[in-house]
Amino acid sequence: MLNALLYAHSGLRYLVLVAGVVAFLYALYSVLTRRPYDRGIRSASGIFAGLLHLQILLGFFFLVSGRFYPALIGHIFMMLFAAASAQIPLSVLRRRSPEERTPLPHLIGNSIALLLVWGGILSIGRSLLESTL
What we know:
Elements: H1 2-32, H2 39-64, H3 72-95, H4 104-123
Helix pairs in contact: 1-2, 1-4, 2-3, 3-4
């Protein structure tokens, strides 16, 4: 069971990174070309934030299973802040009127989230492309 959870948590990392890069590039393109806020930016950012939340949930189950070591403290906090920085633009822009919405908050939030995910992966001694086991 623990190995399956570890494989799921490790494998989901790649989906999170791909979704983050797609959301970042879509937001960057939208900002540079001054495109109006649309469903695409919201969907791309929502998928990225949702996958980050799923990754945190899997990590939480892995953590409560008893496999904890001190280097995980930095990893945990960086990933929690990454999920928050990906979620905040979605939550804030949902409350704004359609005329006030821009893709810039998504660009900033997704950039910060990707940097934190990268730092969180490196904080436990892994590289972005190396296998966990």
